[in-house]
Design a protein that fits this description.
Helix content is 66%, strand content 6%. By secondary structure, the protein is mainly alpha-helical. It has a domain at 1-83: Herpes Virus-1, CATH 3.30.40.10. The strands form two sheets. Strands 4-3-5 form a three-stranded antiparallel beta sheet. A two-stranded antiparallel ribbon has the order 1-2. It is rod-shaped and about 175 Å long. The model has no long low-confidence stretch (mean pLDDT 86).
Amino acid sequence: MASKLEEDYSCPVCFEIFKDPVLLSCSHTVCKVCLQQFWESKGFRECPICRTRLSSDSPPRNLVLKNLCETFLQQKSQRSSEFEVFCSLHSEKLQLFCLEDKQPVCLVCRDSKIHKTHNFSPISEAVIDYKEDLWLKLQSLKKTLERSEEALVTYDQINKHIKSQAQNTETEIKKEFEKLHQFLQDEEATRIAALREEEEQRSQMMKEKIEKMSREISSLSETIRTLEDEMGVDDIAFLQNYKSTVER
């Protein structure tokens, strides 16, 4: 793992020791090359760390940090020379990198049968090339993460819209059914009122007919009793009263 001091001297974009650090207006520091590559990929100027929009396209160089990094690299190089790593097979210094086996090798390994047809690169160049390759992959992963986060926000907004739309539709359905219920209640009340009015009219008509029929029955009953009484008198009296009885 890198030391705390090495982390402090490392660019937060490429994770390498600063080569030509520039100081941004948001107080973050990155390699000049990393910043230019980031701006080219984005199409606009912003800080790769905090995404703050930047007005200047030529941020000042951080000379103090540059000098500190150079001193740190010199000291690290001196320490590395004191602790050089040697080939476990030939006890020679590891100076090359096998591009086929992706392993550091010594000069004897290069000439051996195992690596005879392989291609090699100096350790220093291999480190730069493969770190650059990893840096590009890292940027791709960061872009994928950014797109995934944006998609997540979009999905969350769509989900909220779906819920809001469902709630609004439910409210409209309830309003429509309330109107329908009110219409049915009004229609029921209107029809019942019309039915009762018709019932009242017909009942009044039948009441009048019943009263009329009752009077006619009473009159007929009286006439029948009179006729019965007339028929019960003697013959002379019956004949004397016959004309008036028939007329009545």
